[in-house]
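Risk register update: the risk of archive-format incompatibility is retired. Evidence:
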Amino acid sequence: MADANLAPFEQLAGMTLKLYIHGTASTAEPAASADPIASGFVFVGDTDGGQTVNHAGALTKFYDDNHQGVVKAVRPEEDPTITTTIVDLTLENYARVLNDAANVTSDAGPPAVKRMPIKRGRMPKLYTMLFRSEIASPYGSYPIQYYLPMAVFDGEPAPAFTKDGRAGLELVVTPFEDDTQASGDELGWLTAQTS
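Archived output:
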């Protein structure tokens, strides 16, 4: 019987991912087999309904008088994004997406409450981010993770409160170039464990 994890069956599978962030940009990637929490990452929530990784960055094409077709092309800009909805929402995780969990304040009461301002502020908070699954590697039931050494929560986060009782927060993540990484890795990378 063929093993579904060997060629020609190796392929990326659709799978919800968990989002982890580190409050310091350019924090080293934890090993795919390691617990990100042990490296100082904070669990923000599970993704729900999938996630879309968009490798935006159109080519600029050049033509000359001697050819009908394109003779050269360059990609002057790259703007990859990850779009998803996170669930398991707490006020602290909601605040991390808007700007900073330190903005959440507590009052012992009675009654005890937590309070979070909804203003995002002028400057976005830079994080190191991991989108990770423990079992989605195309090479077996192993971890896979997108590592973004410098990234921000972009777009316009939209909380959704549904009748099934599970609050979700729609968000867009945009990586920034990190010049401390090796050439070609400045925007981050995808790691899949193989054994």
